[in-house]
Amino acid sequence: MQEILIGDYRIGAGHLPFIIAEMSGNHGQSLEKALEIVDAAAAAGCQGLKIQTSTPDMLTLNSREPDFIVRGANQDWEGQSLYELYTTNYTPYEWHAAIFARAQEHGMVAFSSPFGTEAIDFLESVGCPAYKIASFENNWPELIRHAARTGKPVIISTGMADLADLERMVAAVRAEGNEQVILLKCTSTYPALPHNTNLATIPHLRQMLGCHVGLSDHTMGTGVAVAATVLGAAVIEKHLTLRRADGGPDSSFSMEPDEMARLVQECRQAWQALGTVQYGPTEAERKSLAFRRSLYVVEDVAAGEVLTRQNVRVIRPGHGLPPHLLEQVLGRPVRQAVRRGTALSWDLL
């Protein structure tokens, strides 16, 4: 698989996981707060900042008929109409340029989830460098194809998708001559629980569909993201809020800035710890070899005297012959007098 470039960040084997802070509706309809979230994401060490591009009318009807009322998804959404929910959750178009510019000032790359083809057309006008298709939109081939036609990376969350859905969404991107597709393993519950996350899917998806795979994480804490990193997740996406106590549609499953900073640090450490297949002492371990056990003469031995379990022991430090040679040296005479505390070596026998 070829590496994928989003802004100045390379995604793929051999690169740190690309960590995205998802702002969603946590700005509470305040541009000032939205820019504070950008600052917080940068301070936490995130490389990416994602927003959402939609209008309520792009998503649904303004209706309180039973089909349009939220039931059982998230306690903060319960009883609202879809239209009401999306009215509090959307990011005004006129904010996009300011948010993108603030992210760029911090060296981050900002991009968006479009919720309609017209949203993609608008995002093209403000130089959006990549597109994220949300789980609830991943069954809409037209939207995926429209994003793919830009020639930019297309990141797709896989929540609720079965194998046929997954094949269709990847094929839709590639049919437009675009190989820059990244799938994010996602559990579309809010919040999600670790036992429903099924991270073992990550390497299977990568092998089955031949594309980079990451995680869109709605669980609380850092453990799931760290585990995904160990399984080869190329991207980690996590919702960010300044304070969960502020409330909002996504606040209950969003991280606060100090938690996000910890996630970034722990995912990077997990990635670094993977390393390569390694046997024998590493360069860093060489100084510790002295603290292993080895064969030492523990009593004064005269020239010609035979080595026994009384005058040779397996002790620290590790400057003598290795312990597995003990049986080979017992019963053999020494060629010269040897003092107590001498590391045993072949030239003494």
UniProtKB/TrEMBL annotation:
<dbReference type="GO" id="GO:0047444">
    <property type="term" value="F:N-acylneuraminate-9-phosphate synthase activity"/>
</dbReference>
<dbReference type="InterPro" id="IPR051690">
    <property type="entry name" value="PseI-like"/>
</dbReference>
<dbReference type="InterPro" id="IPR020030">
    <property type="entry name" value="Pseudaminic_synth_PseI"/>
</dbReference>
<dbReference type="InterPro" id="IPR013132">
    <property type="entry name" value="PseI/NeuA/B-like_N"/>
</dbReference>
<keyword id="KW-0808">Transferase</keyword>
<dbReference type="InterPro" id="IPR036732">
    <property type="entry name" value="AFP_Neu5c_C_sf"/>
</dbReference>
<dbReference type="InterPro" id="IPR013785">
    <property type="entry name" value="Aldolase_TIM"/>
</dbReference>
<dbReference type="Pfam" id="PF03102">
    <property type="entry name" value="NeuB"/>
</dbReference>
<dbReference type="Pfam" id="PF08666">
    <property type="entry name" value="SAF"/>
</dbReference>
<dbReference type="InterPro" id="IPR006190">
    <property type="entry name" value="SAF_AFP_Neu5Ac"/>
</dbReference>
<dbReference type="InterPro" id="IPR057736">
    <property type="entry name" value="SAF_PseI/NeuA/NeuB"/>
</dbReference>
<feature type="domain" description="AFP-like">
    <location>
        <begin position="294"/>
        <end position="349"/>
    </location>
</feature>
<dbReference type="GO" id="GO:0016051">
    <property type="term" value="P:carbohydrate biosynthetic process"/>
</dbReference>
<dbReference type="InterPro" id="IPR013974">
    <property type="entry name" value="SAF"/>
</dbReference>
<protein>
    <submittedName>
        <fullName>Pseudaminic acid synthase</fullName>
        <ecNumber>2.5.1.97</ecNumber>
    </submittedName>
</protein>
